[in-house]
Design goal:
Elements lengths: L1 H75 L2 H4 L6 H14 L5 E6 L4 E5 L17 H9 L3 E2 L3 E3 L2 E11 L6 E10 H6 L11 E5 L5 E4 L13 H6 L4 H11 L4 E5 L6 E10 L2 E11 H36 L4 H63 L4 H33 L7 E5 H19 L4 E8 L5 E5 H17 L3 E12 L11 E9 L27 H11 L3 E6 L6 E8 L3
Parallel strand pairs: 13-15
Antiparallel strand pairs: 1-2, 1-6, 3-5, 4-5, 5-6, 7-8, 7-11, 9-10, 10-11, 12-14, 15-16, 16-18, 17-18
Length: 600
């Protein structure tokens, strides 16, 4: 009997040891899989963010180069240069002003006459500019400009110890087509691309830029690579002929975007590429390179802490097992409960990590959406403002009527920029809980009548094809409220203009009526309030949009940011009221309403 009991104890001890060994191995295996999944998810997220970031850099770079081309176009078509005036103080002053305006982007700005001789030159103080009287006839970009009579973007080449590109623009008389000369600028490539990212340090995210021939204009991996052709022997030895990077760069230089992960002996990298579009063509190209060690640095710290916890847990488990061996099966139940508790903790940690990752995705998506909307809304009015301002300054206009029309366009787009900036500031105040109200007592009916007058002006300026009538339905009794007058006017105009945008023809009716019980109840169970309703006969609200109508961007329409209803909701709620919207029962249009407390 003792022998059998001893045998059972031995089998029990061996079983426990095997279980401990298996559990430890399984724990390490699960931990390793978890780490790999986390790193894989981080790499995937970084890849998506970096693709968007690279595209943004290429768009920003292309936009700056297009602005430079626009500046050269303005000079080439200016009154003085169109008359062949390259020598007067007026011409010098005009070119000097443009150089000062763009000096942070360009290095030199100079004029060549029809014989390709330098007649006017501006460059940074202390540096050598284009030599007056020098003949540039042998420069490739000069020859190309004269041959095609269009803007020319040179490939990169070394100039005075610095890698440089040239942009040239022909000066052609608009009346007789005579070639008068060339206005040109030089841009040192390394300082230029340093405006958009790191081009000096290999141990963190950096940029690589190419011209159309694959010559590197900037490279954060090594300054010795600047001026080298990517497919040349020197560069290929540097990257050890890495096939992944070679293929990615071929696709980029062919005008395509792409992304890849590789390692040519200097650490694993993730690289994304995008062409730089100038004048509608891919003329230069940029890659963003990120060491994966930078991506994993934060998570490695977290994993190190978790590993310490795991080893601590493992040590405690082994000690517990040793104690269990002495007591044999006495505490088997307790051990099982402890294992379950630890497993639950691991599940909770994994769930929390998944939730945090999901929140990060949502935040990144919202930020990207906001940047895209803001960038589009800013670019749309800026382009006509710049273009028409150039027309007013350097080109002749046909009479006061045309000049006033141009000024009207400039003013309208400037006001659009002002409205966008005010909306962005309001969203910032709302999300930082710093929206302040300047309350005062005023007649709500009078405010609504003023808002109707303003919206009628908006209709008149919107389109001659619209047939919209705005009607008011007010009682004779004055409605006095204590609120921020300017903010309530902002809400009313937002809702009126929103109704106008979606109403082609018909009526828009605004009403104000005292009601009870729609806000937060007071000490007596209710309090008085006023409901302002704006009813239109437009297209109505898409049922898919209705549940999220008052969130950011949900109601974005052509010509707007989608912030108006979000701002209006927060202004009304800051007053202790609420706002809502419904589609009209007859299927025609929608009604937006908001409730505010009144003082009497």
């Amino acid at each position: 009997m003792d022998l059998i009991s001893k045998r059972i104890r031995e089998i029990g001890i061996i079983s426990i040891i095997l279980i401990v060994a298996f559990s430890t191995s399984l724990l390490f295996y699960i931990q390793n899989i978890t780490e790999q999944e986390i790193k894989s998810n981080l790499l995937s997220q970084q890849n998506q963010r970096q693709i968007a970031s690279t595209k943004g850099i290429s768009l920003h770079t292309g936009s700056d180069l297009n602005l430079v081309v626009g500046m050269l176009d303005g000079l080439a078509n200016s009154l003085y240069l169109q008359q062949g005036d390259f020598y007067s103080n007026n011409a010098s002053k005009l070119v000097g002003e443009k150089y000062t305006q763009f000096s942070k982007v360009i290095d030199k700005l100079f004029l060549l006459d029809k014989n390709n001789v330098v007649k006017l030159s501006f460059s940074p103080a202390g540096s050598e500019g284009a030599i007056l009287g020098a003949d540039y006839s042998q420069r490739n970009w000069v020859v190309d400009t004269r041959n095609i009579l269009k803007p020319v973007f040179s490939n990169g080449f070394e100039r005075q110890g610095m890698y440089t590109i040239f942009i040239s623009y022909p000066i052609i008389n608009r009346n007789n087509g005579e070639f008068l000369g060339i206005v040109a600028t030089s841009i040192p490539t390394v300082p230029f691309f340093a405006r958009y990212g790191n081009v000096e340090h290999i141990d963190r995210q950096f940029l690589v830029a190419y011209d159309a021939n694959g010559t590197m204009l900037a490279n954060g991996a090594s300054q010795t690579l600047v001026g080298q052709n990517f497919f040349g022997n020197f560069t290929q030895q540097f990257i050890k002929h890495n096939p992944t990077l070679n293929n990615l760069t071929r696709i980029l230089l062919a005008g395509g975007a792409g992304a890849a992960v590789y390692n040519y002996g200097k650490g694993e990298r993730i690289t994304t590429g995008s062409p730089i579009i100038v004048n509608g063509k891919p003329l230069y190209f940029v890659q963003v390179v990120t060491p994966t060690t930078q991506i994993y640095s934060d998570v490695n710290d977290l994993l190190s802490i978790e590993n310490v916890k795991m080893f601590t847990l493992l040590g405690g488990t082994i000690a517990a097992v040793a104690f269990l061996i002495i007591l044999l099966f006495k505490w088997t139940g307790s051990l099982n409960r402890e294992v379950k508790r630890r497993t639950n903790q691991l599940d909770i940690s994994n769930n929390q990590l998944a939730l945090a990752n999901e929140k990060l995705k949502i935040r990144d998506k919202m930020q990207e959406e906001f940047i895209n909307v803001a960038a589009h809304e800013l670019r749309t009015p800026i382009q006509p403002i710049i273009g028409l301002s150039e027309v007013l300054r350097y080109k002749k206009t046909e009479g006061e009527v045309q000049r006033n029309k141009i000024l009207d366009v400039i003013i309208r787009n400037a006001k659009r920029l002002q409205t966008l900036s005010e909306d962005i500031l309001d969203v910032t105040r709302i999300e930082s809980n710093s929206l302040l109200l300047n309350k005062e007592k005023f007649n709500l009916n009078l405010l609504l009548m003023n808002a109707i007058a303003d919206s009628k002006n908006y209709i008149a300026n919107k389109s001659k094809d619209n047939d919209i009538k705005i009607e008011s339905v007010f009682g004779k009794e004055e409605i006095s409220i204590e609120a921020d007058k300017n903010r309530i006017n902002q809400v009313t105009l937002n809702l009126l203009i929103n109704a106008i945008k979606f109403t082609r023809q018909g009526n828009i009716t605004i009403s104000a009526k005292k009601q009870e019980g729609l806000g937060n109840a007071g000490s007596d169970g209710h309090h008085d309030g006023v409901v302002v309703a704006i009813k239109d006969t437009g297209t109505g609200i898409d049922p898919a949009i209705l549940p999220k109508l008052f969130t950011k961007f949900a109601s974005s329409s052509d010509g707007g940011t989608g912030l108006g209803l979000f701002i209006s909701k927060n202004i009304v709620e800051a007053h202790g009221g609420r706002i809502w919207a419904i589609n009209n029962e007859n299927g025609g249009g929608a009604t937006f309403s908001f409730w505010l407390p009144v003082t009497g």
